[in-house]
Specification:
This protein is an all-alpha fold. Among the domains are: 187 residues, Serine Threonine Protein Phosphatase 5, Tetratricopeptide repeat, CATH 1.25.40; 66 residues, no CATH class; 118 residues, Tetratricopeptide repeat domain (Serine Threonine Protein Phosphatase 5, Tetratricopeptide repeat, Alpha Horseshoe). Helix content is 77%, strand content 0%. The chain contains 37 helices and no strands. The chain is elongated.
Length: 685
């Protein structure tokens, strides 16, 4: 017989719902227990000690609350043996089994609990969550419905159902439940945090930040709220604010692996790969059995070009979670980078088998098949990837309305069910709307990642509805904007490298962005000039020097008047010791615009003239410059040097003497001329 009658249980559950709704604030890591309805269960089990003795129930509940799941399972099993009709034993053991990932056994215990007490709202709630973890998302909703029917004022049950609706792609129902939960309990931190995560996933970052702010106004030490706000700021591109919040979360809860894994993700997005590696390593140290952290760290190793480390991590992820599709996708990327195309095809196919809408795996397999000469297979995979659409790593990178998100999910589901001209047109329309919505957001929010997402949606629309000229125009517009974003990124990275020449990672990233700009069809003179300049900056790399020449020449062909480009080409020739073409380029520049000539360039020209045994040619050139710019002490100094190189020492000395005595020379040129004059005079003696 059940030791609690229905009336007693109902009254107790109403009281316990108050605990769940935040009227008794959770401490430390109890937040995660509360999220899953565990607080109600633990308190229920701790407060209602009857037939088996209060101490036994309290001890079992304490084991469960403290995370000692295996010991809790054993304790509750003993209680079940003593009292096989007591619902508490099955609820407690089911909760412990659930934490141990023994989901079928946990669900079986929850089934018994519900059979013993059909009015146990907690049992319906936790059974729903266990089914959700098992992947049986559709089975969750009826149980959540029943839990809410039994305790209609439970904000926690509403929040849990909202999460389930969102995972089922029913964003409108999810938002309705989140809003209702907060209406029921305006001080429930869990509801604000869950809605913030939901809004971030839809790209509504400002609204997510507002929810995180509200959660922190209720509990200023809530780690999850800081993580949520940091994530929203990071997706908005407000990196400094994002890192401040991640750092605060790490300070509040240094044993929370999620803090470090999330911060590592954004460090990687900011291309701070060493910091990302450190964060992922810390997350792995704290949670060594979480496959995602290994997979993500492997992706960073891949970006750094360390293929053995990348492979080691993705192998570890697969060993921990053999059905984790993204780990196979990550390993396919490592194989592809190493040119092992057959292996890349095997792993990307496995990722697709595990998750049919894994568009990134289709893209990787397309590249591998193309490299293997399978053009048809490559084209088919590329098309499928476009139809499935982009899959950002952290929610949606740009905010669009929930209405668009809901239409997109419905349209994609309809196409999967039946590939007809009508279903294709329907999905094309929403993809076009999605791309246009991103295009219309604030220019400050249009990062390259956001524009990549928009372009992917536009290309998807163009593939699904090739006869619509508007789709092609949208692709063209977004391609130009994305090329411009890549150009700016590459320019900024090159400037960073020029300030810190040892940071070759910045140079490599700049090269990647410059190539992307050109691949998008933007082979403009500035883009080609930038690409050539970046190649020319690689220290002591003959291949890079050779690769630099072609884009610089192409840029000059488009824009012959680009003096910086011509100078870059001249420096390239000087590095190789190809003095005649270097001098041709430099004379072309300074003959048209003598104002560009400075001491450093004049010195380079003098060395080149002398090294090429063309001092007379140099003398003639600088005579022309002096005639055009008689005030240029730099040109007059260069002329003196070249006259001296031809053995006409007295004439060269007169030039220097004039430079030092006319009072018109620059301070640097005058000082250098005095030293040189003294040196030549001493040699003459």
């Amino acid at each position: 017989m059940n030791v609690l009658d229905g009336q007693h249980q109902t009254g107790m559950k109403v009281a316990l719902t108050q605990v769940l709704q935040g009227r008794i604030a959770p401490q430390g890591n109890l937040y995660s227990v509360m999220r899953r309805g565990g607080a109600a269960l633990c308190v229920l089990l701790a407060l209602s000690g009857f037939a088996a003795g209060a101490d036994e129930w309290e001890q079992a509940a304490e084991l469960l609350k403290s995370g000692q799941s295996r010991q809790a399972e054993e304790a509750y099993s003993k209680l079940v043996e003593k009292l096989p009709d007591d619902v508490r034993g099955y609820l407690g053991r089911g909760r412990a089994l659930w934490r141990l990932k023994r989901l079928d056994a946990a669900i079986a215990d929850f089934d018994v609990a519900i059979a013993l007490d059909p009015k146990s709202a907690d049992a319906y709630n936790v059974r729903a969550l266990a089914n959700e973890d098992k992947g049986e998302k559709a089975r969750c909703i009826p149980d959540f419905d029943r839990a809410i029917e039994l305790v209609p004022k439970s904000a926690v049950f509403r929040t849990n159902r909202a999460d389930a609706f969102f995972k089922l792609g029913q964003a409108d129902k999810a938002l309705e439940d989140f809003n209702k939960a907060i209406e029921l309990d305006p001080k429930l931190v869990y509801a604000y945090n869950s809605r913030a995560s939901f809004l971030t996933s839809l790209g509504h970052y400002d609204r997510a930040i507002a929810d995180a702010d509200k959660a922190l106004s209720i509990n200023s030490r809530d780690t999850t709220a800081y993580i949520n706000r940091a994530t929203a700021y990071g997706n908005k591109g407000e990196d400094d604010k994002s890192m401040l919040d991640f750092n605060k979360a790490a300070e509040l809860d240094p044993s929370n692996a999620k803090v470090f894994s999330n911060r590592g993700y954004f460090q990687s997005r900011q291309r701070k790969y060493d910091l990302a590696l450190a964060d992922y390593s810390k997350a792995i140290e704290l949670a060594p059995k979480v496959a995602q952290n290994y997979s993500n760290r492997g992706a960073v190793w891949l970006k750094k070009g360390n293929y053995p480390k990348a492979m080691e991590d993705v192998d570890a992820a697969i060993a921990l979670s053999p059905n984790y599709s993204r780990a196979f996708r990550s390993r396919a990327a490592v194989w592809l980078a190493q040119g092992k195309y057959e292996n890349a095809i095997v792993d990307s196919s496995k990722a697709i088998e595990l998750k049919r809408d894994e568009s990134g795996a289709f893209r990787l397999r397309s590249e591998a098949r193309s490299a293997m000469g399978d053009s048809k297979g490559a084209q088919d995979d590329a098309c499928l990837a476009l139809v499935l659409g982009p899959q950002p790593g952290s929610g949606r990178l740009a905010a669009v309305s929930p209405e668009i998100m809901a239409r997109e999910q419905e349209s994609l589901n309809a196409l999967r069910k039946s590939d007809t001209p009508e279903s294709r047109l329907r999905l094309a329309a929403v993809r076009r709307d999605h791309a246009s919505a991103i295009l219309n957001i604030s220019p400050q929010a249009q990062s390259s990642e956001v524009l990549e997402e928009a372009l992917a949606y536009a290309r998807s629309a163009a593939l699904l509805e090739p006869g619509n000229a508007g789709n092609g125009a949208l692709v063209g517009t977004l391609s130009k904007k994305l090329a411009a974003a890549y150009f700016k990124q590459a320019t900024d990275l090159l400037a960073h490298y020029d300030r810190e020449p040892g940071d070759t990672t910045a140079l490599e990233l700049a090269l990647g962005d410059a190539k992307k700009a050109i691949i998008l069809g933007a082979s403009s003179a500035p883009n080609l000039y930038l690409l050539g300049t970046i190649y020319s900056r690689f220290p002591d790399d003959p291949l890079a020097s050779a690769l630099a020449e072609s884009p610089l020449q192409m840029s000059l062909k488009i824009d012959p008047g680009n003096i910086p480009c011509r100078l870059a080409l001249a420096r390239l020739f000087l590095q190789r010791g190809a003095y005649p073409p270097a001098l041709d380029a430099m004379e072309e520049c300074f003959g048209k615009d003598p104002q560009q000539l400075d001491r450093s360039l004049a010195a380079d020209m003098c060395r080149a003239y002398v090294s090429a045994n063309q001092s007379p040619r140099g003398e003639q050139f600088f005579q022309r410059v002096v005639k055009a710019r008689p005030e240029s002490s730099t040109a007059r100094l260069a002329l003196a040097l070249l006259i001296h190189a031809q053995g006409r020492n007295d004439e060269a000395l007169r030039q220097l003497a004039a430079l030092t005595g006319d009072g018109k020379s620059s301070a640097e040129d005058a000082e250098f001329s005095k030293k040189l004059l003294k040196s030549w005079q001493e040699k003459k003696r």
